[in-house]
Write a structure and sequence with these properties.
The protein has 201 residues and is of the alpha/beta class. It has helices at 2-11, 22-29, 47-54, 66-79, 114-124, 145-153, 165-170, and strands at 37-41, 58-63, 83-87, 100-106, 128-139, 174-183, 191-199.
Length: 201
């Protein structure tokens, strides 16, 4: 999986690369997310991290693909902002320590297998300070029978989260609000959701 993503970033441009995500921009612009110590989990080429740094956040950004981190550092230099970009694995963090006031994950958690998600939770949840915000973006829809079968066969993780999965997984540690999303879309992927979660004291 790591080799696949690293090659994709090294030789191509994944479709999620580009501007900072609209949900994140909106929440920062309206003051819902205020400058603090922040971490971008699975940052890719760093578009969200650079945006946050421009808006006054103290940003750490992590990805397991060295090629992605190399491109992200170049973007930060071009933008004239300081971001701590680290090559690390969210299921076995070695170089990151909290606490953070904001955690951002755009499309990393849903891409993991069930076993990897358990390791992610063990590593990531302790990074959130009491009261911290966690913006989680995920593909989300009711999986068909063949999609559920594919998840069991695929060597690289999940396809999407099913409705209710985020609440069932994170509600012990976070108060959860679904702030955006679409379902029943034609074609594939068939839905997505953005959750703004607040770390319980």
């Amino acid at each position: 999986m790591r080799a696949l993503y690293n090659s994709w970033y090294r030789f191509g441009t994944p479709p999620w690369v580009g501007e900072a995500r609209q949900d994140l921009v909106a929440l920062v612009s309206d003051g819902t997310l205020a400058p603090c110590r922040a971490i971008d989990l699975g940052c890719g080429e760093g578009d969200n991290a650079v945006f946050l740094a421009r808006r006054g956040f103290d940003v750490t950004a992590v990805d397991f693909a060295p090629a992605a981190i190399g491109k992200a550092r170049a973007k930060a230099r071009a933008a004239g902002v300081d971001v701590r970009f680290l090559v690390d694995d969210l299921t076995d963090l070695r170089h990151v320590s909290g606490p953070f006031g904001l955690l951002v994950d755009y499309g990393t958690f849903d891409d993991l297998s069930e076993a990897q998600r358990r390791l992610y939770l063990r590593n990531v949840v302790p990074l959130a300070a009491p009261g911290a915000k966690f913006l989680l973006w995920t593909f989300e829809w009711e999986l068909t029978r063949w999609e559920k079968a594919a998840v069991k066969l695929l060597p690289f993780g999940g396809i999407a989260l099913e409705p209710g999965y985020v609440e069932a997984t994170f509600s012990r540690d976070f108060a959860i609000e679904r702030v955006a999303g679409e379902s029943g879309l034609k074609g594939w992927p068939r839905g997505w959701a953005a959750y703004l979660m607040t770390r319980r004291a």
